[in-house]
């Protein structure tokens, strides 16, 4: 028994040293040993092979493959006026402007049915459907056909992911986070100076890099010359809490958010000692003026790190960008937009907070193949003189959507939980009223 | 691996729905996907709240009436068959169906049934005629607060006057068909079907 214990212990030491030597140390210094590249290449080849086999298999069985990427219906994008006028064209009598027709009801019922079959909003709050299966159980919605070979690969995949990759990643993440807390607290003991700032940035970067390795994250940064600078505000589209790790791997940001309890609270308290982040109490968040004032003060101080804000206010599934809340755009200062797009083949990064809590979400992340994403730094933008905050927000949103290949929606991300405002219905009622009473305003 | 086997549609069910509604195999599976994604309670049926969660439907002035059309009399849940049956009304009219066996009952999406569906949106008490009150109710839903009671009343009166032919101040289904003789724009082109844009 003793020998067995010794063997296990020495195996553990060896494994731990390998982890530190091969993964942690290079990560801390931003060097790559190329292991990840090899892994990714093998993964891509395997997934492509699996896709071909599934396609071949379903052709043999003559099952119709469901079209995922096409919408199920084609919609008319013409206005209410045009469509209702078209509906009325079948009438034999001449049309007097400003009249009600019984057939007008067809316009609304058609629009209603179209939205029941397919709408733009509800599917943004669940994970994106994949065009071809990526050998993860969780994304197997429509792909029922499996051959023996694919099943073997799948079992192998489960073993690799849960028994090899998961413990590895959990170790790395634990090391990364504990080092962040300890390191930041240590740096916090120093008096304020440029040395302290430099050390704090170093500590932050190293820890986020280790955490990124803890997720097997491969991040491609584009247009690094547009990277956010001090005294500015960085805005990005929000898919999951991991966005923070992704962005912080390439630069230091001041975080903004609510004070949490538990583990997150410990981390928050530690890192605010090293450099100024902006944490709000829950009660303070409700007071918008207070929030704006504190952020404005932070931005005005040009020595402070750029603030990182996610104006959508909630996690969306990375196929679209939803309404940007105007609060972040009223602070002033330069906005540095960033677009983040995850590659869904390797793992689904979207956090569906209704379905998974934080811990199960992290475990899902750590048992995916990898997290692969592209980050584009967009040129900075400032608010023009005649522009309102809302228009500015929409301008930034459009730029981010365009760069990331995402759909630009004006629906509020808050619709995930809340009901839609009646104001939109009232708008439609108003337009229709204009049609049936003609031009005289009543 | 086939993790949702229990919730997948069986082939026999798909065939039955195909016969009843005329949707194709791939359309049915796609719509089943949609049905399950709306079914937040995961019990195989939809309730009214599930529909109201669709923002575009919630802001439709006739949203509530349309939702009602899915639920049979007095019931609060609709299953997938019922869901498809109602959706079938809005399937585009296929040309090749016109020459079908006349003994087979009229398909759900025939021109007649489409008009009947719209008629029932007005005729809430299902007495086969649209009264002035019922017309006013629908008008009020579509215009909100933007038109006064008086003006709306006169619009309703004018509409009934034009449509009513037997002088009973109600609009019957036959009168409705004559008045709403519109170029019935088919619902939409669904990928996977070959169909002609029908102006009937």
TrEMBL record, chain A:
- Tell whether Transferase is among the UniProt keywords: yes
| Pathway listed | Lipid metabolism; Glycerolipid metabolism; triacylglycerol biosynthesis; Phospholipid metabolism; CDP-diacylglycerol biosynthesis; CDP-diacylglycerol from sn-glycerol 3-phosphate: step 1/3
Compartments (UniProt record)? Endoplasmic reticulum membrane
Q: Which InterPro entries does the entry link to?
A: LPCAT1-like (IPR045252), Plipid/glycerol_acylTrfase (IPR002123)
Keyword Transmembrane helix assigned to the entry: answer is yes
Q: Where is the Phospholipid/glycerol acyltransferase domain?
A: 232-343
What residues form the membrane-spanning segments?
Answer: 12-35, 143-163, 170-190
Query: Sorted alphabetically, which keywords does the UniProt record give?
Result: Acyltransferase, Endoplasmic reticulum, Lipid biosynthesis, Lipid metabolism, Membrane, Phospholipid biosynthesis, Phospholipid metabolism, Transferase, Transmembrane, Transmembrane helix
* SUPFAM superfamilies, alphabetized: Glycerol-3-phosphate (1)-acyltransferase (SSF69593)
Q: How does it sit in the membrane?
A: Multi-pass membrane protein
A GO term, aspect molecular function: acyltransferase activity
Cited PANTHER family: GLYCEROL-3-PHOSPHATE ACYLTRANSFERASE 3, PHOSPHOLIPID ACYLTRANSFERASE
Q: Which family does it belong to?
A: Belongs to the 1-acyl-sn-glycerol-3-phosphate acyltransferase family.
- Protein name per the record: GPAT3 acyltransferase
Q: Which organism is it from?
A: Polyodon spathula
């Amino acid at each position: 028994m003793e020998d067995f214990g010794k063997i296990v212990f020495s195996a553990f030491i060896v494994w731990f040293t390998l982890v530190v030597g091969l993964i942690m140390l290079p990560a801390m210094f931003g060097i790559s040993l190329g292991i990840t590249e090899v892994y990714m290449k093998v993964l891509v080849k395997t997934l492509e092979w699996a896709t071909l086999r599934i396609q071949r298999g379903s052709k043999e069985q003559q099952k119709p493959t469901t079209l995922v990427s096409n919408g199920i219906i084609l919609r008319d994008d013409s206005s209410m006026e045009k469509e209702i006028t078209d509906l009325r064209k079948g009438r034999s009598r001449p049309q007097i402007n400003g009249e009600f027709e019984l057939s007008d009801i067809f316009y609304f019922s058609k629009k209603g049915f179209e939205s029941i079959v397919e709408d733009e909003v509800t599917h943004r709050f669940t994970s994106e459907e994949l065009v071809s299966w990526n050998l993860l159980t969780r994304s197997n919605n429509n792909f029922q056909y499996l051959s023996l070979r694919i099943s073997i690969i799948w079992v192998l995949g489960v073993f690799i992911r849960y028994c090899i990759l998961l413990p590895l990643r959990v170790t790395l993440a634990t090391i990364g986070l504990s080092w962040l807390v300890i390191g930041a607290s240590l740096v916090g003991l120093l008096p304020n100076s440029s040395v302290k700032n430099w050390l704090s940035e170093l500590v932050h970067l190293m820890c986020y890099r280790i955490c990124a390795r803890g997720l097997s994250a491969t991040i491609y940064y584009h247009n690094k010359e547009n990277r956010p600078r001090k005294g500015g505000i960085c805005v990005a589209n929000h898919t999951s809490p991991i966005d923070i790790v992704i962005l912080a791997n390439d630069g230091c940001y001041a975080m903004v958010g609510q004070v949490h309890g538990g583990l997150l609270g410990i981390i928050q308290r530690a890192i605010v000692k090293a450099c100024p982040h902006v944490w709000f109490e829950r009660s303070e968040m409700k007071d918008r003026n207070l929030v704006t004032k504190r952020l404005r003060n932070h931005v005005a101080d040009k020595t402070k790190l750029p603030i990182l804000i996610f104006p959508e206010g909630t996690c969306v599934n990375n196929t679209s960008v939803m309404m940007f809340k105007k609060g972040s755009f009223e602070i002033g200062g330069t906005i540095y937009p960033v677009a983040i797009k995850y590659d869904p083949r390797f793992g689904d990064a979207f956090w569906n907070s209704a379905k998974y809590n934080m811990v199960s979400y992290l475990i899902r992340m750590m048992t995916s193949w990898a997290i692969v994403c592209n980050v584009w730094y967009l040129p900075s933008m400032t608010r023009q003189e005649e522009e309102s905050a809302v228009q500015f927000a929409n301008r930034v949103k459009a730029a981010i959507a365009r760069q990331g290949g995402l759909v630009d929606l004006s629906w509020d991300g808050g619709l995930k939980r809340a009901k839609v405002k009646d104001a939109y219905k009232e708008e439609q009622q108003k337009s229709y009223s204009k049609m049936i009473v003609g031009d005289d305003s009543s | 691996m086939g993790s949702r086997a229990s919730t997948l549609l069986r082939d026999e069910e798909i065939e039955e729905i195909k016969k009843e509604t005329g949707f194709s195999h791939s359309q049915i599976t796609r719509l089943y996907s949609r049905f399950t994604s709306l079914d937040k309670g995961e019990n195989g049926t939809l309730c009214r709240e599930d529909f109201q969660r669709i923002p575009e439907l919630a802001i439709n002035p006739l949203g509530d009436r349309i939702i009602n059309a899915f639920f049979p009399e007095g019931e609060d849940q609709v299953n997938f068959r019922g869901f498809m049956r109602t959706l079938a009304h809005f399937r585009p009219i296929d040309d090749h169906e016109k020459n079908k066996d006349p003994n087979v009952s009229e398909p759900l999406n025939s021109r007649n049934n489409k008009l009947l569906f719209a008629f029932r949106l007005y005729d809430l008490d299902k007495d086969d005629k649209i009264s002035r009150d019922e017309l006013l109710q629908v008008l009020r839903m579509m215009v909100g607060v933007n038109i006064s009671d008086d003006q709306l009343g006169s619009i309703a009166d004018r509409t009934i006057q034009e449509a009513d032919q037997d002088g009973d101040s109600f609009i019957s289904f036959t009168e409705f068909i004559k008045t709403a003789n519109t170029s019935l724009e088919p619902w939409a082109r669904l990928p996977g079907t070959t169909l002609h844009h029908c102006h009937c």
